[in-house]
Amino acid sequence: MPDPFLEARAFLAGLDPDWARHVEAVGPCLHQAKPAREPCEALVRAIAYQQLHARAGDAILGRFLGLYGQTFPSPGQILATDFEPLRACGFSAGKIATIRGIAEATLSGVVPDYQTAQTMDDEALIERLTRLRGIGRWTVEMLLIYSLERLDILPADDFGVREGYRRLKGLEQQPTRKQMIEIGLSLRPHRTVAAWYLWRVPAR
Length: 204
Description:
- With 204 residues, the chain is mostly helical.
- It has two domains: 72 residues, Endonuclease Iii, domain 2 (Orthogonal Bundle); 108 residues, Hypothetical protein, domain 2 (Endonuclease III, domain 1), CATH 1.10.340.30.
- The chain starts with 5 loop residues before the first helix and ends in a 6-residue tail after the last helix.
- 60% of the residues lie in helices and 0% in strands.
């Protein structure tokens, strides 16, 4: 089976010896998008994992899906769910308000459907969705990477991306968000694959 990220791997490995060693050590990029997910679902899932370790996010999301027979609920079903069952899933009050806001914005058309989102520019979608309560740039970037299959997204706010770069380059401190954006310019047009590799830089 052909490697869909072969060109991106070769590009990153050609940047400098640090990248070359890391790409060689990790091997092929195994990034997997979830293009069947509607933006509403992708945003709610991202909120579930926001500021949590993956295992904690998995547990909360599992309980949330359990409320609806393990299928992802419609915006109407979310809005019809009382506060307490959502709180029992492990969501904070703030996250519950955000999730309900996403559901309302989906029904009103502010959160576009999948086909509409596919036609929108990255920055236009980020600007539109970050107006919603509790939705930051990182959350929309996860939507862009995993649901809309955009291949040139570097989440500069992401701890794992910044820490991965720090380790890759042997720096004492993580680059700031602004510095990470500047660094990302040299990674275009393969910033999504670069992020995937930065998430996998081992601790020294």
